Amino acid sequence: MKPIVLLTWNDSESLSGWVSELECRNMSVTGCRTVGLLVHQNDDVVIVSASHDEKNGNFESPIAIPKIVIDEIRYLEWDEIYPKKEIKK
After folding, report:
1. pLDDT in tens for each of the 89 residues of the chain?
2. Cβ 11 vs Cβ 32: under 8 Å
């Protein structure tokens, strides 16, 4: 089973069309949080996915986030996400 992680990271902001210099100067990065199954990580990137089909090995909606924009990687425990009393078998 793949570990579940919470990534805190910074994404870029963009505007489309013609904009003033003031609008450009007011742009900033956006703080993001992503929770997912850890597919892979190396020195450059962390890849997480929304779902994993363990039978055929496929992943749904993976995202590759450059490590340079990640502030924190927190490994989550299942009990933090789904308290035992809420799990239905």
Report:
1. 889 999 999 999 999 999 999 999 999 999 999 999 999 999 999 999 999 998 999 999 999 999 999 999 999 987 766 666 655 55
2. yes
